[in-house]
Amino acid sequence: xxxxxxxxxxxxxxxxxxxxxxxxxxxxxxxxxxxxxxxxxxxxxxxxxxxxxxxxxxxxxxxxxxxxxxxxxxxxxxxxxxxxxxxxxxxxxxxxxxxxxxxxxxxxxxxxxxxxxxxxxxxxxxxxxxxxxxxxxxxxxxxxxxxxxxxxxxxxxxxxxxxxxxxxxxxxxxxxxxxxxxxxxxxxxxxxxxxxxxxxxxxxxxxxxxxxxxxxxxxxxxxxxxxxxxxxxxxxxxxxxxxxxxxxxxxxxxxxxxxxxxxxxxxxxxxxxxxxxxxxxxxxxxxxxx
Length: 290
Prior knowledge:
Helices cover 77% and strands 4% of the residues.
């Protein structure tokens, strides 16, 4: 399997290296800006992970693309013009949504122009997956994030109060002992939800469950899974601050709590998926294949 994949890529290299050089010349400055700017911040830190996974999915699907007959489509050229215009506008006006979004449009346009709609259909999920790395307008994020932060703060307060901790809440500010903590956007915001939703969809794409009930159920349940993981993260940060002080809560352990978030979400996704598999197995008539 792996040797066949490498052979397919080697066979495609002579035809595709000019395209790859053109893409490098166009998007290398963008990548440098992202890796030294937006993608090193906590709110957009999922960007390189999403992009890397999408490129891996394209790499994994490439033999299937090569196996299909190439039928170049003229629709790729106006789409390419749109992608280049988005890149020019985003790069010159510092509109990150346009600059990152142009990467997806240009890549899809090249596939459509050189290989046709069949190849684009094969690669639909990697291109859809890359949409999760496009930042949303800040005004929309602010409107949606505030109720999410309020809900996470409320849940954290009630769980820790029930466990006997001296905690109180005012809006999104938690007071535990002598310390005050502000639940920030990165701790309970929309971007975290979108990142976990993307990871859940990536998991579903890899598993390829034949059961529609299992796939749809897990995709929907990723939303409460994300909320639960965010609550656990804020609880961890609150307890770290309570026992070790404000410096520990805002220092290295703050980044470690981010790892706790994704490990917790992954564990919950696997647990929910196993539960759905068990439930679907109970509903399946005897003798029917899984």
